[in-house]
Design a protein that fits this description.
By secondary structure, the protein is of the alpha+beta class. The chain contains 4 helices and 9 strands, in the order E-H-E-E-E-E-H-E-H-E-H-E-E. Strand 2 and strand 3 form a beta hairpin.
């Protein structure tokens, strides 16, 4: 079992545009990449789910190996499955923007956005990931900052919703 993290650098619509503006970075989406090529991620329409293909027609994405034991990978798989159907946290995006402006938080626990759900799933394995930070305050662009959890592997090109090769 080998679940990896994938961080997309793309702009496919208004949500990505908002995320780019609020986060002030090009990384707009975080997902889990499964060995069979399927992706588990939070989408504004549809919530957290697993599907074949990527959310982007054309973009560049970075793939990260997760610093997890085999047992933790099994726990991660279970944590991901447990969250299928979680609604997308629209208020969380507003909350993140509020936090960036005023350094004050508010949260909606029955929903989540991509990096928030991802960090929570990893934490469910017992692994240390962004210690001391509320997962709702972690943007996709923050993912590479936790170098002990996320080891950069390669940059790939997404074309027609699938990985076409390394960049």
């Amino acid at each position: 079992m080998s679940i990896k993290a994938i961080l997309y650098h793309g702009h496919k619509g208004q949500i990505d545009s908002i995320i780019q503006r609020v986060c002030q970075d090009t990384e707009t989406h975080f997902a889990f990449l499964h060995k069979d090529g399927s992706v588990s991620d939070a989408r504004p329409w549809g919530g957290f789910q697993r599907r074949q293909g990527h959310n982007y027609f054309e973009c560049v994405a970075d793939i990260y190996t997760l610093n997890l034991t085999y047992e933790q990978q099994l726990l991660l798989d279970a944590a991901i499955k447990k969250r299928y159907g979680t609604k997308y946290d629209w208020w969380g995006l507003i909350g993140y923007f509020w936090y960036k402006l005023f350094k004050r938080q508010f949260d909606m626990k029955k929903a989540g956005f991509c990096s928030e759900i991802g960090v929570d799933c990893i934490r469910d394995t017992g692994a240390k990931c962004f210690d001391g930070m509320d997962s709702g305050m972690i943007a996709p662009a923050d993912i590479p900052e936790d170098e002990r959890m996320f080891q950069f592997e390669k940059t790939v090109r997404i074309w027609e919703f699938k990985i076409e090769g390394e960049v």
